[in-house]
Amino acid sequence: MMNLFRLLGDMTHLLCIVVLLLKIRTRKSCAGISLKTQELYVIVFLTRYLDLFTMYNSLYQIVMKLVFVGTSIGIVWYMRYHKVVKQTYSKNEDTFRHYFLILPCFVLALFVHLDFTVVEVLWSFSLYLEAVAILPQLVLLQRSRNIDTLTGDYVFLLGVYRVLYLLNWVYRFFMEIHQIRWIPWVSGFIQTALYADFFYYYIKSWKNREKLKLPA
What is the pTM of this model? Predict the structure, then answer.
């Protein structure tokens, strides 16, 4: 069911995608963006939205799911195959072995899920994977000496989107379902915690009008 926190979360998610596409399309650059994080997001959205083929909730949800899947695939395509954009990819700094995150998340989903069906296991897997998908991006930013404004704004908005979705679950606990769904709660807390350090330095750089730089 829609509430203000979920709506704001969706709009913030859309905004961070617009910021990233603006950087890629207008500047013809993906410098500072982790391809590995973007590939993990493709897996996250493809496994989470399998219910597109089995369940109808609303036109809004269908459109949003298709947008998230389509844009995530499009971003990866640009970074891998666009003749100009791919040359700006920070390959030497994007060294986090992201494939090591996939198997543990899948194994966890096999044991911790709401219902032992393909859709529910993959939904749980997508939440676990999304919780840690930002790690390659954060590692890349720590190694980068030049974090441009759009890249910093993109990661910040991505973190805000996750905070708003966590507030959405808190709201639903008190106003709707009155029970804790441990999978989105725990994965949401972990994901938000991973952004905490970045939030601190982002807000500090904005307040002091300084160039964003993360400690090594």
Answer: 0.91
Q: Determine the pLDDT at residue 44.
A: 96
The neighbour count for residue 201, using CB atoms within 10 Å, is: 17
How many angstroms separate the CA atoms of 48 and 163, rounded?
A: 19
Cα distance from N-terminal residue to C-terminal residue, the chain: 42
Distance CA 35, CA 80 (A): 8
- Count CB neighbours of 136 within 10 A: 22
User: Closest Cα to residue 69, out of 94, 91, 47?
Assistant: 47
Segment 42-101, tens digit of pLDDT: 999 999 998 887 777 788 989 999 999 999 999 999 999 999 999 999 899 999 999 899
Could you tell me the residue ranges of all domains in the chain? 4-208
CA 96 to chain centre: 16
What amino acid occupies position 2?
Answer: M
Return d(Cα 159, Cα 173) in angstroms, integer: 22
DSSP-assigned states of every residue in 24-74: HHHH---TT--HHHHHHHHHHHHHHGGGGGT----HHHHHHHHHHHHHHHH
Q: Residues 6 or more apart from 151 whose CB is under 8 A from it?
A: 23, 31, 32, 33, 141
State the pLDDT at residue 9: 93
